[in-house]
């Protein structure tokens, strides 16, 4: 299974390098359209190879998806955290109750009850 993963990653790397080599033409990315930039008197642009735009878009999309999913799962994490705290509280209460129950018992019998 490990070799299949390595083969897959190798093929993926070759494909990404081929896409990058095929799209080396320079493109200009502008922050604002020309009319709006003239109105606001602010223009920012940069010239980058086209494959940087492709891979950057994929990366930004992944990051947005990860953040969106993290925010969406907040309620599930909060509920799990509350259940974990409740379980710890109940375990402490059980130990305290068992200790009160076993305070007059012989130590050996109390240990045997705890292990069962």
From TrEMBL:
<dbReference type="InterPro" id="IPR010445">
    <property type="entry name" value="LapA_dom"/>
</dbReference>
<keyword id="KW-0812">Transmembrane</keyword>
<feature type="domain" description="Lipopolysaccharide assembly protein A">
    <location>
        <begin position="23"/>
        <end position="94"/>
    </location>
</feature>
<dbReference type="GO" id="GO:0005886">
    <property type="term" value="C:plasma membrane"/>
</dbReference>
<keyword id="KW-0175">Coiled coil</keyword>
<keyword id="KW-1003">Cell membrane</keyword>
<dbReference type="Pfam" id="PF06305">
    <property type="entry name" value="LapA_dom"/>
</dbReference>
<feature type="transmembrane region" description="Helical">
    <location>
        <begin position="46"/>
        <end position="71"/>
    </location>
</feature>
<keyword id="KW-0472">Membrane</keyword>
<feature type="coiled-coil region">
    <location>
        <begin position="77"/>
        <end position="107"/>
    </location>
</feature>
<keyword id="KW-1133">Transmembrane helix</keyword>
<protein>
    <submittedName>
        <fullName>Phosphate transport regulator</fullName>
    </submittedName>
</protein>
């Amino acid at each position: 299974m490990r070799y299949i993963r390595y083969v897959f990653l190798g093929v993926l790397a070759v494909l990404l390098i081929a896409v990058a080599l095929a799209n080396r033409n320079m493109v200009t990315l502008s922050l604002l359209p020309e009319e709006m930039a003239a109105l606001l008197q602010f223009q920012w642009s940069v010239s980058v190879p086209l494959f940087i735009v492709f891979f950057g878009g994929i990366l930004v999309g992944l990051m947005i998806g990860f953040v969106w999913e993290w925010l969406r799962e907040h309620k599930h994490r909060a509920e799990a955290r509350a259940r974990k705290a409740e379980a710890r509280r109940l375990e402490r209460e059980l130990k305290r109750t068992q200790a009160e129950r076993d305070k007059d018992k012989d130590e050996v019998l109390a240990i045997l009850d705890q292990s069962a």
